[in-house]
Write a structure and sequence with these properties.
51% of the residues lie in helices and 10% in strands. By secondary structure, it is α/β, with parallel strands linked by helices. The chain has a four-stranded parallel β-sheet with strand order 3-2-1-4, with helices on one face. The longest helix has 36 residues, at 24-59. This is ATP synthase subunit C lysine N-methyltransferase isoform X5.
């Protein structure tokens, strides 16, 4: 027993392969498999986090007591708002401004216009569109809950939305 152990120890010290040491190709292959597993897990996890971050602001309004979804204004509806503003002066606020279409249209007509929206993605997109349209100086967008904003400084208030929104402000069915 003593002679066999000494031979094994001598083999390891000399750098020769022994029956107890796994071949290098097996170690490399197992390391490659482990790296692919970590990479795959990272990609799937990152994708899920990104989907969650993008989808949450669009899904959470449906989970509130009163559902207020994002519904983009049509061209005709924007034209009607602009037509109603023809003889008006003073700053304008759009409550639930969505992607900023009404605020940008009002800013193009010379109004100082502000939009309040809960969805941060829509606010960032609105700011980008205002910059692209060249009205970033007169069109501003804020991420805010409409119940936490004072509207007394605005002469023109636009509430474009679903009937539930009008019920909130008017207290009756429209």
């Amino acid at each position: 027993m003593d002679g066999g152990g000494a031979t094994h120890l001598a083999t390891l010290e000399e750098g020769r392969p022994s029956e107890c040491v796994p071949p290098a190709s097996l170690e490399a292959n197992s390391l490659k498999k482990s790296s692919w597993g970590v990479l795959f897990t990272g990609i799937v996890g990152g994708t899920l986090v990104a989907v969650y971050a993008v989808a949450t602001p669009f899904v959470t309004p449906a989970l509130r007591r009163i559902c207020l979804p994002f519904v983009p204004a049509t061209t005709k509806q924007i034209e009607n708002v602009v037509k109603m503003l023809e003889c008006r002066r003073g700053p304008l606020v759009d409550i639930g401004s969505g992607d900023g279409r009404i605020v940008i249209a009002a800013a193009k007509e010379g109004f100082t216009a502000v939009g309040y929206e809960l969805n941060p993605w829509l606010v960032w997109y609105s700011r980008y569109r205002a910059r692209r349209e060249g009205v970033q100086a007169s069109a501003r967008f804020y991420i805010s809950d409409l119940w936490k904003v004072t509207f007394s400084q605005y002469s023109n208030v636009v509430i474009f939305g679903v009937p539930q929104m009008f019920d909130l402000f008017c207290g009756s069915k429209v």
